[in-house]
Amino acid sequence: MTRRPSAVLVLEDGTTFRGEAYGAVGETFGEAVFSTGMTGYQETLTDPSYHRQVVVMTAPHVGNTGVNGEDDESGKIWVAGYVVRDPSRSYSNWRAKGGLEDRLAAEGVVGICNVDTRALTRHLRERGAMRVGISSVDDDVAGVLERVRRSPEMTGADLVGEVTTAEPYTVKAEGEHRLTVAAIDLGIKRNTPRRMAARGITTHVMPATASVDDVLATGADAVFLSNGPGDPAAADDQVTLTRSLLERRVPLFGICFGNQILGRALGLGTFKLKYGHRGINQPVLDRSTGRVEVTAHNHGFAVAAPLDETVATTFGPAEVSHVCLNDNVVEGLRLLDAPAFSVQYHPEAAAGPHDADYLFDRLLELVKRA
Amino acid sequence: MPKRTDLKHILVIGSGPIVIGQACEFDYSGTQACRVLRAEGLRVTLVNSNPATIMTDPEYADATYVEPITPEFVELVIAKERPDALLPTLGGQTALNTAVALHESGVLEKYGVELIGADIEAIRRGEDRQLFKDIVAKAGARIGFSDAAGGDLVPRSRVCHSMDEVRETVAELGLPVVIRPSFTMGGLGSGMAHTPEDLDRLAGSGLAESPVHEVLIEESVLGWKEYELELMRDRNDNVVVVCSIENVDAMGVHTGDSVTVAPAMTLTDREYQRLRDLGIAVLREVGVDTGGCNIQFAVNPKDGRIVVIEMNPRVSRSSALASKATGFPIAKIAAKLAIGYTLDEIPNDITRETPAAFEPTLDYVVVKIPRFAFEKFPGADPELTTTMKSVGEAMALGRNFTEALGKAMRSVETKASGFWTLPDPDRTLEETLEALRVPHDGRLYTAERALRLGASVTDVSDASGFDPWFVDQLASLVDLRTEILEAAVLDEPLLRRAKRAGLSDRQICALRPEFAGEDGVRTLRHRLGLRPVYKTVDTCAAEFAAKTPYHYSSYDHETEVTGSDRPKVLILGSGPNRIGQGIEFDYSCVHAVLALREAGYETVMVNCNPETVSTDYDTADRLYFEPLTFEDVLEVYHAENSSGLAAGGPGVVGVVVQLGGQTPLGLARRLAEAGVPIVGTSPESIHLAEERGAFGKLLDEAGLRSPAHGTATSFADAKTIADEIGYPVLVRPSYVLGGRGMEIVYDEETLRDYIGRATAISPNHPVLVDRFLDDAIEIDVDALCDATGEVYLGGVMEHIEEAGIHSGDSSCVLPPITLGAAHIAEVRRYTAAIARGVGVRGLLNVQYALKDDILYVLEANPRASRTVPFVSKATAVPLAKAAARIMLGASIDELRDEGMLPPSGDGGKLPESAPIAVKEAVLPFKRFRTPAGKGIDSLLGPEMKSTGEVMGIDRTFGHAFAKSQAAAYGSLPTSGKIFVTVANRDKRGIVFPAKRLADLGFSILATDGTASVLRRYGVECEVLRKHFEGDDGTRDAVELIASGEVSLVINTPQGSGARLDGYEIRSAAVAADIPCITTLPGAAAAVMGIEALIRGEMTVRPLQELHAKLRPETTSD
Fold it and tell me: Which positions are annotated as binding L-glutamine (chain A) (predicted)?
């Protein structure tokens, strides 16, 4: 067996893990975050929300089912680096088209394996998400650490422009057409228009720079604000766009980054969570029904809003519609007198459970009522 | 939705005796439920006939009924207790079936008892195969699932009620087909038919086994991948998936007999979510009220087609596994959901800050391996099928698959302890691949061997049905093996990789002879600083801090063991259940934990059996889910001791080895030699009791008798000894538990056969030859002895069975009913002399035979015995707790002062008003068949074969005996035919019982001799012939029993001549599931019991009330 080159992972606080190269050999930097999903690595890797992040997988075995032609959530792998404990040396699945490591190498994704990912996760849990570097070309820890500390921070990062589509495109409704939605691509995943299409929604996916006029020109019945990477505090353009839409009472649905944009448009603040929510087992309470849904999360920032009272906003009263039961983080917002709502998590799942799929039905109802 | 306020009093039903398919996992779940309900301030009434359970300890319920779990007895309990509700989902199929019966007979309605946690219609929908099939189709349609490959979501199938229907169905589906009888437990009676002959046999017996005479004939999904999901639902319709489990053995092997892995290893998220969606939809469609539920799926590896195989609307064996695998306590939460809580209102015990409404995520891999006992049932077909045959299981956790696998393989304690630890079988590649095609115990070994013989991953996967990913994991071990074999020196990186892949020191030394054994590997490993670290099971992959120290080892970097300055005691558990070492030992270990916790020690449990109470993270202060091998235990000791010392404490002050059966006991000497502080009876003393010569000397010096005996190291030796002491002789290999390999031999020819067949006789493996005492009364004693030499007789049990049947398989009664004061005094003198002579500190079990008023010592075991829980419940004295305290230095006098032991007297001097307790064994013969499909030989003998036991307790022997039979067999008959055949010496004695039975309305059947005596006394009877006699026109007794016409057998053996015939009758009775009485006292007891049943005067009494009478000094609460 050919041996892997050694590799080193250095956190900005100087903590170092030694392992072996995985994927591409090289050096990479980003924000270290951990994801607790036991399935769905292909979806995770290709989720644009992970742009500039080095993802630590808590599940020890990664790559067991290879990669296939259907499960990509975008056109490429977005993670800045990948940290796993036990990469699979083979893969087995009837849909598999190739091995994960070959794909990582082909796309130049630098990773590290054979590290104590649980120890790293515990460290990030205690100290918070922080910058990290992985190098399989330089084992001088001091040098890597210096470059980690020079790399950009996630706070304040405006990354939407780096992930959004260059040109608008359309995903047609399946079966009977019921609705047209303009989706602002802040890092949209493929499964979102797919889930909408399954309900008879045609989606016009627009670049993040789209103006109100661009959006209205599509003739859409509603606007969708997608998920995406970076600090919502830096996304002023989208906040402006959202306000214009709210003023025109255009029905609006946002997820993840879109939830934060809506929050800001309503005058609420956002803040960085200590280590974020990244996984597919997060319990969220829908406060309107009292039901708990198990949901897919990928967010490092959250909206600051009072949980037990409505908030007066320019667009009428708003309330927190969903909360995470683990830590009471705001997971959804709703305007009481205007057709707009959003959630901080991923109803389109991919990867993750489908408990929140009903939210796309709520979009249909919202438009019907409006 | 908070707790319901209208429920104040809950009845919980346990699962009764341990049988294959229903083991101690239901003690674990029931114990959790009882604790939760009481903590919620509810009154709890419990019914369970199994005395070896923790849940039947009087402190776990307000009223504990150790009574038969039959609708009749449970009705008595309901009438007396008047509970508001019945919670039936935590006691396996037994509890569920009983609840359904009570519902159908109107008892629940009559007494206004609400069924909680279950819904009768949902149970029916889940268990009725045809209804379930429709449910799945409906559920699938509702969520828009038509299958990917366009097929059905269930295997094509039809329910049949006759053989004609069966044949018609198979004509359509084609062979092979699966046969599944309705309403049976653990897949009893089901199987795969490849040929028309298989079909006739399996469908025939399936129709008979099913209480509703119904079988499902189903399209074969043999070879498909098999998955299970464990789900929970609350009354707000919130559903979570607690765990996914993937079977390494493909469809066709019962999941209880499969090697299984959690979480699923070879599913993409899309496929996993499809299973999840479908599972939840089915759960809702079935209408599972609240609580746990298990759903099994088959997935076609070629195109991903999913079919739903079955669901259990209750806590199951898999949920116990899932609870231990994830740290999510399914039973505890199910109990809370049943009384009205919702998932979001229940905190997650482990994180304490997050709620139970979430899905656990694992950052480790869990492997479960079943433990079989085919060696106990010669003639049984060892092919694994859809009928569960394993008797236990071991689970292991590791940070990768091979690590978990390696640990699990050594946890099951088979002859091989992981790959390469036994010589390879002499088979070619073709033969190996051929063997791989038939599912069998140890198939992973066969697969690994095939790879080493040059088979490709694909070859092995095709032959075995294992997913290629798992086979490749085995291939990675084969590659590693080559590296280890070929390396010039075993350097740190290579040794680290070997340990990281889960290899034990023993496996490594098998490859590198220069280490001269595992001690050499360990020395090198420690010199290189290679020790395991201990990670934590936390339900959340470290996302939140864990508050419970539930640990497993891994060769990784960071350890999570926290320091503690309290004195620690390690308690070594008993590993996987097997025949001869089961729940009784876990019971004693749990008691040690409880007693030592209370005495101020920090208790550390080490065990690998996921079914047990001892491996509940709530039981001990710290739990290490680890294999019970020398290497693994030594590392746990090191981790706990060094962290304790570093924290400024005394570290580990003692390791308890005498409560977990032979497994920990077998480690005692090596651990002591390695400097581990073994407490209690010293390893030297243990050896003294087990070493024949030394023990014989001890007996001689104390003037105690034992049957003439000798130790043989060759057949010639054995023959000389037997000739000297006279036949019959009892022969067995030395150092065994559960009478493994023990037989009674009547002549030289059989002796020669035995030596050749059953032993690997050599100077290192001697065979013990004892005079067998025919026609003796056997007596079992459990006793405590402290450091001052004070002895406390826990209990004296008199066997009801004829001599020569293993004590674990025979029924016994406590207090002894026919022994006089002089006999007991003799037993006391003998026991004290042995305890002091051996140097026992803790528990001692001695077996005696009383023949012609002379007491003989058969054997002495300086450890907790199987009967400790029975004795403790019958006498209201916690023997195992006392033993644990004695091991740590307490004296019997101190324990009397504390109130743990009675202020005066002991179990040898019970008051005449003491209740009578009868223990009866439960046997698994019905589970096994020969390759030709016949029932296996169910003869009982000196080798233990029972899987579990029940207790009947009442004021008189007759009542207690009737209860024990009802608990083990359903009930003693109150009408029908009774077959009587007794030895000449018993002919007079049988007259009165037989006459009484005839007067009670029974028809009496008898053999010629017995019949002529009975007729003279005016008892009408039909004459049957004995099995071995020629056909003389009368009916054959054995055949009549087998046909189900007889409802009770009374057969006292004639001595050695008629022994064989007696065995045949007994076998037939066991196979027909009817009681067989083998002694006159037993017959008298049965008659009294039957009278009590007929007169409807059976009563039930809680243990708390019985104990209050026995120990008035402790009844303040």
Answer: 49, 228, 230, 257, 260, 298, 300-301
> What is the tens place of the pLDDT at every residue in B26-62?
999 999 999 999 999 999 999 999 999 999 999 999 9
Q: Is B358 in contact with A283 (Cβ distance < 8 A)?
A: yes
Q: Which residue type is seen at B235?
A: R
- From chain A, the residues in CB contact with B401 under 8 A are 61
The verdict on whether residue A228 carries a ligand-binding annotation is yes
In chain B, the domains with their CATH numbers are 9-118 (3.40.50.20), 149-344+356-366 (3.30.470.20), 367-527 (1.10.1030.10), 562-679 (3.40.50.20), 708-769 (3.30.1490.20), 958-1094 (3.40.50.1380)
Residue A230 in marked binding region = yes
Q: Write out chain A residues lying below 8 Å of B561, CB-based.
A: none
Buried residues in B916-936 as b, exposed as e (16+ CB within 10 A)? bbbbbbbbbbbbbbeeeeebb
> What's the half-sphere exposure (Cβ side, CA atoms, 13 Å) at B934?
8
Query: pLDDT higher for B791 or B696?
Result: B791
Query: Chain A 161-200, CB below 8 Å of chain B: which residues?
Result: none
For B:190-249, CB contacts with A below 8 A are 236-238, 240-241
What is the nearest CA distance from B1041 to chain A, expressed in angstroms?
54
Low-confidence ranges of chain A (pLDDT < 50): 1
As for the ipTM of the complex, it is 0.97
CA distance A323 to A258: 16
pLDDT of the residue at B1057: 44
Quote the CA–CA distance of A246 and A267 in Å, as a whole number: 13
Domain ranges, ordered by start, for chain A: 6-150, 160-369
Q: B344 touching A, CB under 8 A?
A: yes
Q: Does residue B172 sit at the A interface (CB-CB below 8 Å)?
A: no
CA distances from B635 to B521, B531, B641 (A): 14, 7, 10
Of the candidate CATH numbers 1.20.120.140, 3.90.1640.10, 3.40.50.970, 3.50.30.20, the domain formed by A6-150 belongs to 3.50.30.20
A160-369 CATH, one of 3.40.30.10, 3.50.50.60, 3.20.20.30, 3.40.50.880: 3.40.50.880
DSSP H/E element including B34: helix B25-39
* H-run or E-run covering A191: helix A191-197
Interface of A with B in 282-301 (CB under 8 A): 282-283, 285, 290-292, 294
CB B261 within 8 A of CB B245: yes
Q: pTM, whole model, 2 decimals?
A: 0.94
CB-CB contact of B760 with B768 (8 Å)? no
CB contact under 8 A, B268 and A65: yes
What mean pLDDT is reported for chain B?
A: 91
A85 Cα to chain B: minimum distance (Å): 9
Question: How is A294-342 classified by DSSP, letter by letter?
Answer: EEEEEEEEEEE--SSS-EEETTEEEEEEEEETTT--EEEEEESSSSEEE
| pLDDT tens profile B248-283 | 999 989 999 999 999 999 999 999 999 999 999 999
Which alpha helices (H) appear in B534-661, and where do they start and end? 583-598, 630-646
Contacts of B1096 (CB under 8 A, 6+ apart): none
Q: Which residues fall within 8 angstroms of residue B261, CB to CB, at 6 or more apart?
A: B245, B246, B247, B248, B365, B366, B367, B368, B401, B404, B470
List B745's β-bridge partners, or say none. Answer: B729
- As a whole number of angstroms, the longest Cα–Cα distance in chain B is 89
Helix H segments across B599-745? 630-646, 662-665, 668-673, 683-690, 692-702, 715-725
pLDDT above 60: residue B792 = yes
Measured between beta carbons, the chain A residues lying within 8 angstroms of B540 are: 36, 281
- More confident of the two residues B142 and A32: A32
Q: What is residue B834's three-state secondary structure?
A: helix
